[in-house]
Amino acid sequence: MKRNLRELAAMCGGEIRKPDDADLIIEGVTTDSRRISKGCLFIPLAGERFDGHDFAADCLAAGASAVLWDKAKGTPPGPAITVDNTLEALQRLAQSYLRESKARVVGITGSNGKTTTKDIVFSLLSTTFNVHKTQGNFNNHIGLPLTILAMPENADIAVLEMGMSGRHEIELLSKLAEPEVAVITNIGEAHLMQLGSRLEIARAKLEILAGLKSGGTLVYDGDEPLIPKVLGEADMPKPERFNTVTFGLQPHNDDYPIGLMFLDDSTVFASSAGSEEPLHLPLLGQHNVINCLAAIAVARYFGVTEQAIKEGLTRVKLTGMRIEVVKGVSGITILNDAYNASPTAMKAAIGVLENMRGYRHKIAVLGDMLELGETENELHREVGAFITAGKLDQLFTYGALGAKIAEGAAEHLDQESIHAYTDKTELISGLMNVLHPKDVVLVKGSRGMRLEEVVEAVQNSDLHQ
């Protein structure tokens, strides 16, 4: 974004402190005092343990051209736009920039798979358009505005991920971004602690309709009955007129996969709504096929050809640690999925392991799934009970809740194939005693369990033949 200070003040509802600064050119914005670029606008935000206003003078000295400044903070240290609230001004600035641009917006939310779906949508649309997307997990009330303001002036489409931890957060993001297409990947168990039920989670995700443009399109998981249930609720904010497209495994959906084939490093399938030619997805698992169908629906909405969709799938690159296939120095295959975990995602990862072929043994290392609320013990046992004979050969669990996975697994697996640990060093030691270079091992748990340490240990171990 390149604007003068006068234009920026109008866009965010602020006032220029000194009229002589009105023609000052600003290129880009940041809220991070460690990432100052020459000519940028520094936007200080106040948190519980810090206040960005304290760093404003240093940012100007480091090359920032001006700062956004909360009127209650006294006199700014240099060229500034003064506002009542810097966070609200950041959001308003992003909304104005998006409205001034020609970019059409795709908003993506869901309990699981939204980042993967975003990455696939980006790959498919990039075959035909100039596309900007959310980087990493910049998907909240601060990250989404910064993503918008980082968008090149010539972008045709902005693909924006929308995350949440409670009610009305996605509503805010949707009203800010005003998507033309909204995607809900699924309704899972993440945020049960905050929201209490899957029905409340569904209501929170469907807040994405609050800012959907009139006549826009909602693309959603048609195998999830809670979505049409909430869509029928009279008090749910939504445009008077919008279209729907459903995807899923079942044939009642507008699109579903046919001819599924699981390979060691990819999945082959055909889209029932397409030409029925095989599509090669360089990702593992049935759940990623479903994510892919959501992305394909978006691509078709924007007129991307079937051939371009096919080509775009070959270029998909995912944001890190989502079932990343890693080879160890010994030759062992590791499925690194240590980024996050929920019951739905855990079962999907186990399904990926089940479909791996040609390995000596299939081994899973599963850690605690955090923030599941009062039903956490039951949900962990359910994941364990999902592991029937044939899905894997050895199960290792880590953590107090991981022990509940082990309890559930005992319903179907022999006790000698189940190993529960609460000490990570002991887990790694026990794991090394059973691993072989021709094995495949899945590692999955919530980010707070730091199971990437297990991945690194397995990856760097010279296992005995």
Q: What can be said about this structure in brief?
A:
This protein is α/β, with parallel strands linked by helices and 465 residues long.
Walk me through the structure.
- With 465 residues, the protein is α/β, with parallel strands linked by helices.
- It folds into 3 domains: 2-85, Udp-n-acetylmuramoylalanyl-d-glutamate--2,6- Diaminopimelate Ligase, Chain: A, domain 1; 101-313, Mur-like, catalytic domain (UDP-N-acetylmuramoyl-L-alanine:D-glutamate ligase); 324-460, Mur ligase, C-terminal domain (Protein-Tyrosine Phosphatase, Chain A, Alpha-Beta Complex).
- Helices cover 32% and strands 20% of the residues.
- It is built from 16 helices and 22 strands.
- The protein has helices spanning 5-12, 56-61, 86-100, 114-125, 143-149, 169-177, 192-195, 198-205, 226-231, 286-301, 306-313, 343-354, 376-386, 402-409, 424-432, 452-460, and strands at 2-4, 15-16, 25-27, 29-30, 41-42, 66-70, 80-83, 104-109, 131-133, 157-161, 181-184, 217-221, 243-247, 257-262, 267-271, 279-281, 324-327, 333-337, 362-367, 394-398, 418-421, 440-444.
- The chain has a 6-stranded parallel β-sheet, sandwiched between helices.
- Helix 14 (402-409) links the parallel strand 20 (394-398) and strand 21.
- Helix 4 (114-125) crosses helix 11 (306-313).
- The longest helix is centred in the middle third of the chain and has 16 residues, at 286-301.
- The radius of gyration is 24 Å and the shape is globular.
- The relative contact order is 0.09.
- The mean pLDDT is 94.
